[in-house]
Backbone:
């Protein structure tokens, strides 16, 4: 047996040297040469003999233990390491399965307690109740440790380097949510293993209290009441730990997921711009700029919200008319081809006024379409043309003032030079 006073005295005396070594041992083991270098760096005035003596003291007190199958490498004793982590307020997140294993053990202890009471074995009943109380305190200690560890996970994610990509910075948060919080949610549900285990143990303890009043006392009622109160405290502590975990990690997890959606939306927007141009981007998704773009490009939150909306953009569904309603407009026809218009124009020769003929052929045609056919037919070399006086023509949408042509059949070379066309549209209203 190692004398506790000597271990505690060594820890207190050499704390300045042991505390920095905790970080190194968290990352792995250290060889004897590395240990000597670490101690020499912190004790510049010490001789090699002093460092050797110090290491001998730590090894004799089991503060340092050799690694299995590597006698030249050392690490902290597991109990000493846990004690130092407690003193440094370091909390390491455990497994949710540990709590479930504790609950299974509590259920078994409840069965042993019932058996001891049935056979009226007071000594075994008191022993099983003490074990039950110890296991409940272990669960409470683990829940408190896990809550502190979850706070550390959130703090590390918030204070890490901003230059690191968000998913890499929040990798620990995402892993903690998947490996601890999600199983904990299922465990603490109303029909989960935690509630069922607590209910089984509580039923046994309450039955013992009532049966002792009827059959006589085997153990003190205060022990049963104290254990029952601690179990209820364990149940409340588990719910509070889960609530704090959700409050700490859920916003960070949603931020990471939203960042993924923003990245995906940006990729979709860029691919659409490359294929179809800037007009392909749904500008109606969200307004991006609140001031002129030449002087202001929008805040980071506006840009993020805009790109995030792109990922979830859905076009408005087309509204089709109902079958019982009468169609107000005729179905659209295919546009006229150049060959068709030339053939119709040749069949109608001679034309005293080309624009009047076009208006007769296309009474509902758009102004720009009529002007296109006017320019195309008047310049065709198979027609002879003669310029007319300026006059006004009324299309479906505008009043157009121009000098039209009279078309005749003949060779293109017969057209006089002074009849070459000039700008035909002067104004449209």
Residues:
């Amino acid at each position: 047996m190692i004398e506790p006073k000597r271990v505690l005295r060594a820890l207190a005396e050499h704390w300045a040297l042991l505390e920095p070594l905790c970080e190194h041992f968290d990352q792995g083991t250290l060889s004897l040469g590395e240990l000597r270098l670490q101690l020499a760096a912190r004790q510049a005035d010490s001789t090699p003999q002093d460092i050797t003596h110090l290491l001998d003291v730590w090894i004799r007190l089991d503060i340092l233990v050799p690694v299995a199958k590597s006698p030249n490498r050392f690490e902290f004793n597991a109990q000493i390491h846990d004690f130092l982590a407690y003193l440094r307020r370091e909390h390491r997140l455990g497994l949710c399965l540990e709590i479930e294993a504790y609950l299974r053990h509590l259920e078994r202890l409840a069965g042993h307690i019932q058996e001891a009471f049935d056979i009226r074995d007071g000594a075994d009943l008191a022993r099983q109740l003490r074990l039950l109380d110890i296991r409940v305190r272990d669960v409470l200690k683990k829940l408190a440790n896990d809550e502190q560890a979850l706070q550390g996970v959130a703090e590390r994610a918030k204070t890490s380097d901003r230059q690191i990509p968000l998913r890499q910075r929040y990798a620990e948060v995402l892993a903690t949510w998947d490996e601890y919080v999600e199983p904990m949610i299922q465990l603490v549900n109303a029909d989960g293993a935690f509630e069922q285990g607590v209910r089984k143990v509580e039923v046994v303890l309450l039955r013992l209290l009532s049966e002792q009043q009827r059959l006589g006392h085997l153990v003190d009622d205060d022990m049963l009441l104290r254990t029952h109160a601690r179990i209820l405290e364990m149940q409340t502590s588990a719910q509070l730990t889960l609530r704090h975990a959700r409050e700490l990690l859920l916003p960070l997890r949603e931020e990471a997921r939203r960042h993924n959606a923003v990245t995906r939306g940006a990729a979709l927007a860029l691919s659409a711009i490359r294929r179809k141009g800037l007009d392909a981007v749904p500008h109606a998704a969200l307004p991006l700029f609140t001031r002129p773009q030449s002087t202001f490009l929008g805040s980071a939150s506006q840009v993020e919200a805009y790109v995030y909306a792109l990922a979830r953009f859905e076009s408005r569904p087309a509204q089709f008319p109902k079958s019982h309603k009468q169609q107000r407009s005729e179905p659209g026809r295919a546009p006229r081809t150049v060959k068709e218009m030339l053939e119709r124009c040749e069949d109608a020769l001679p034309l005293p006024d080309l624009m009047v003929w076009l208006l007769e052929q296309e009474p509902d045609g758009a102004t720009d379409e009529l002007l296109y056919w006017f320019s195309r037919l008047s310049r065709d070399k198979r027609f002879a043309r003669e310029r007319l006086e300026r006059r006004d023509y009324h299309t479906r949408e505008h009043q157009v003032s121009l000098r039209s042509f009279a078309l005749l059949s003949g060779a293109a070379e017969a057209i006089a030079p002074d009849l070459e066309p000039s700008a035909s549209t002067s104004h449209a209203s």
